[in-house]
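hey so u asked for the seq, here:
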Amino acid sequence: QVQFVESGGGLVQPGNSLRLSCTVSGTSDELRFMAWYRQAPGKFRELVARIDRFGKTEYATAVTERFTISKESAQKTTALQMTKLQPDDTATYYCSITTSGGQTYWGQGTPVTVSS
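ran it, structure tokens below
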């Protein structure tokens, strides 16, 4: 059974930073992608950033140059460094993996609130 341990969410003031971490266990498959999604109240879940097995990254336009995704493949760990946070970044952030077999799994989510 695939399990996620997500951490790092919380309350932060606008302009400050947070770092989210996610460690995955329970699968021996190579991971095609590790990603972070977010869902704000009343909105659809959206891709924030993802990184492929080669280290290639892609970002949502809204977070480009503010957020950085990284991974440690051997530990099946990914992190999302978020800087210059804005109230619009308030959401529940979900870690996600896609295996080499094409299966996608989701973490339970960690809330991020950006407010003064």
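The CA atoms of residues 35 and 50 lie 4 Å apart. The two ends are 40 Å apart (CA to CA).
lmk if thats what u needed
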